[in-house]
């Protein structure tokens, strides 16, 4: 069985760590020396079910690697292999999130974001990737003294326990702010729209804003209160390097009457988080004022 036949035989919709040449898709052979010398190599499958793929088609259109303090993405295109490099020092945030089977990683710089989609069975591999990137982020970031926190009030939350279960976190993390689950009220201009909207059910998931001194860590999720904290319906774990945060502001939310948008300004990029109308941001700002 040749490499292409073996690749088709073992194909599934999940990320795979490449550890040697036989696991590297043949379309990347021209770059195999550079790729195989990397610290971590992950190949990303096309978004197809195994039953729908036929022998001979390209099954992995991306390979991304961690090497020499860079994330390097090799992407298969009609014109050949396109290569994109993201220096670790340019990464200002990294996000892991998703719903049920479908998950993603987002790597953000001060001006753009790169996203990798994957199935949830690849969680251990993506945790390994995030750990490598975050280790460098933390080593380069300022280490701020942590002042007033509210950890003791909320460290029993399933959301917090789930975060500790899912991520490879070795450092102490303290809670700066908490947003409880809220039923959202869609903004409307007249009583007819308000009546219709009252039958719609939209909600804001729980959110925790935390810090380890070097990052602001934002986690949100819809965790079933009747099940184990390891069950996820939707979640988002975001790590933001404190040095790259220029400003935090609360803005009006035009979609909902009882929420606001928390804007984290990162230069030419930004992150937005929806929070409740009475969300308390003071401890987050107090922490960042120490930079």
Task: Characterize the structure shown.
The structure is a single chain. With 291 residues, this protein is α+β, with helices and mostly antiparallel strands. The chain has two domains: 3-133, Pleckstrin-homology domain (PH domain)/Phosphotyrosine-binding domain (PTB) (PH-domain like); 143-288, no CATH class. It is built from seven helices and 17 strands. The protein has helices at 3-10, 32-36, 123-140, 151-154, 158-166, 191-197, 282-288, and strands at residues 16-17, 40-45, 60-67, 70-77, 80-87, 93-99, 102-108, 113-119, 174-179, 182-183, 203-204, 206-211, 215-222, 234-241, 247-252, 259-265, 270-276. The strands form four sheets. The protein has a seven-stranded antiparallel beta sheet. A hairpin with a 2-residue loop joins strand 3 and strand 4. Mean pLDDT is 84; it is low at 223-233.
In short:
The chain is α+β, with helices and mostly antiparallel strands and 291 residues long.
Distance from first to last alpha carbon: 58 Å
Instruction: Give the overall silhouette.
Output: globular
Give the strand content. 35-45%
- Radius of gyration, in angstroms, nearest whole number: 21 Å
Instruction: Find the structural class using helix and strand composition.
Output: alpha+beta
Strand line-up across the major sheet: 8-7-6-14-13-12-9
User: What is the overall pLDDT average?
Assistant: 84
